[in-house]
Specification:
Elements: H1 3-6, E1 12-15, H2 34-45, E2 54-57, H3 64-67, H4 73-84, H5 106-125, E3 131-134, H6 155-166, E4 171-175, H7 182-187, E5 194-201, E6 225-230, H8 236-254, E7 258-262, H9 280-297, E8 302-305, H10 316-327, H11 340-350, H12 378-390
Parallel strand pairs: 1-2, 1-3, 3-8, 4-5, 4-7, 5-6, 7-8
Length: 398
């Protein structure tokens, strides 16, 4: 995206309700809601919430009819039961497991997060704003009938389903979380109106053990799913190389009317649950690239969601604040110091020092895949496999 265009304020609805922090599995669980609160406090400390064209909104929880766009009635009832009986959760529906503990707000907080993403989709589709962000969302593992991977209701899938209900004919979903976006892929596996693209750590080394390059969509929607599994240890240069080798070309061919993106921060080298080695600086560049792609191919219609990310202090707040800043058209200088008021809040909440700057000190670059590749390199092998599997379905050369 050109520098002048990046620095032009964009209309943004930032969806936030402090009550989303009730999505809390309890002490010791990796999905610590502190990461959400610290992100919003950093957004506020930098003044991004009060910038030109920015509106902070809270939406109501998703109602049952909305939840049923993706989730079965039996599953929604099981989640509600788990809220009332946390110790009697139904493991048949993925509840009460090591990943998805029952807790009193399990239905209400999950529905609230879903409601923010659905409202974001409505606002963008109806032309109320070009961009919408719900960094509390991105819970991409939940399946129609079961919880999975810390995810109760699949808010990205619900947002996409609502877009389709409103009349959208082509929606692209790009997921750059370290884990495969399996729940969203499953929801639209056989729907040619939705293109799901996921870059993630290789399923041989990480949950949910899906997202192979050969997963390319159902019989009625060949090429509707694209997966690029990355070798463990992939850093900034490889991650950016893989993204640019697949995503822009697919979006150019698909021409989505809306772009929905998931920005899990768990690709970071400091994340305790995965094995990629990406920096906040590369995560910022990907957010900027997706912003540009939304303007290039989707008339600027962009819905950006959070996702995973378990380095609660050092990574998530900075990564998602850069996402908000990018969506607002007011990028934050990576070299900028984090505000002193925010650092004090981090220390008060967590007892830990906060990162002093908005950067990890990296200056990411990558080598374009069109300039040549090494067939013996594991990353290039992964890129080639993904391109060969999906690009021909779109009339493109692998």
């Amino acid at each position: 995206m050109p520098e002048a265009e990046r620095d032009t304020p964009c209309g943004l609805h930032l969806f936030w309700d402090e009550a989303v922090t009730a999505y809390d599995f309890g002490p010791g669980h990796p999905m610590d809601p502190t990461r959400l609160a610290l992100t919003m406090r950093l957004v506020e400390a930098l003044g991004l919430d009060a910038g030109p064209g920015v509106t902070v909104r809270a939406a109501p929880p998703a109602g049952e009819s909305t939840l049923h766009l993706v989730h079965t009635r039996a599953y929604v009832e099981a989640v509600k039961y788990a809220a009332d009986h946390p110790d009697q959760s139904d493991r048949r529906h993925g509840l009460g497991t090591d990943d998805n503990w029952g807790f009193p707000a399990v239905h209400s907080a999950s529905a609230l997060i879903a409601g923010q993403s659905v409202a974001a989709a409505e606002a963008v589709w109806r032309g109320e704003t070009p961009h919408a962000v719900n960094f509390a969302g991105g819970l991409h593992h939940a399946m129609p009938g079961r919880a999975s991977g810390f995810c109760i209701y699949n808010d990205p899938a619900l947002a996409i389903a609502r877009l389709l209900e409103l009349g959208a004919e082509r929606v692209a979903y790009v997921d750059v979380d370290v884990h495969h976006g399996d729940g969203v892929q499953e929801a639209f596996w056989d729907d040619p109106r939705v293109l799901t693209v996921s870059l993630h750590e290789h399923p041989a080394t990480l949950f949910p053990q899906t997202g192979w390059a050969t997963e390319t969509g159902g019989p009625n929607a060949p090429g509707s799913a694209a997966n690029l599994p990355l070798p463990a240890g992939t850093g900034d240069a490889g991650w950016l190389r893989a993204f640019h080798a697949l995503v822009p070309e697919l979006l150019a061919a698909f021409r989505p009317q809306v772009l929905v993106t998931q920005h899990g921060a768990d690709t970071h080298l400091a994340d305790p649950l995965a094995h990629l080695a990406v920096t906040v600086d590369a995560q910022r560049l990907i957010a900027e690239e997706l912003h540009g792609l939304a303007h290039r191919y989707a008339d600027g219609r962009w819905i950006a969601l959070g996702g995973g990310g378990y380095a609660v202090v050092d990574v998530v707040p900075r990564s998602w604040t850069h996402l908000v800043a990018t969506a607002a058209g007011r990028p934050v200088d990576p070299a900028a110091e984090t505000p002193g008021s925010w650092r004090a809040e981090v220390l008060r909440r967590t007892g830990r020092p906060a990162p002093p700057r908005m950067t990890d000190g990296a200056r990411p670059s990558w080598r374009d895949f069109d300039a040549g590749y090494d067939p013996a390199d594991r990353l290039d092998q992964a890129i080639l496999a993904a391109r060969r599997a999906v690009l021909p379905h779109h009339g493109l050369l692998p």
